[in-house]
Amino acid sequence: MKAIILVAGVGKRLFPLTQETPKCMIPFNGKPLLEYYFQFLKNLKVSSIVLVVGHLREKIEAFAGKFRNEIPVRYYQSPDIHGGSLLSLWSARGELNEDVLIMDGDVFFPEAMLERLAKSRHANCFLADPSSPSTGEEQVLYANNGRVLFISKKPYTKHKPIGESVGFLKLSKSGAAELAKILEEFVSAGKKGIEHEETYPVLMERCVVNFENADDFKWTEIDSMKDVEMARTIAKN
Question: What range defines the domain where residue 186 resides?
Answer without folding.
Answer: 2-236
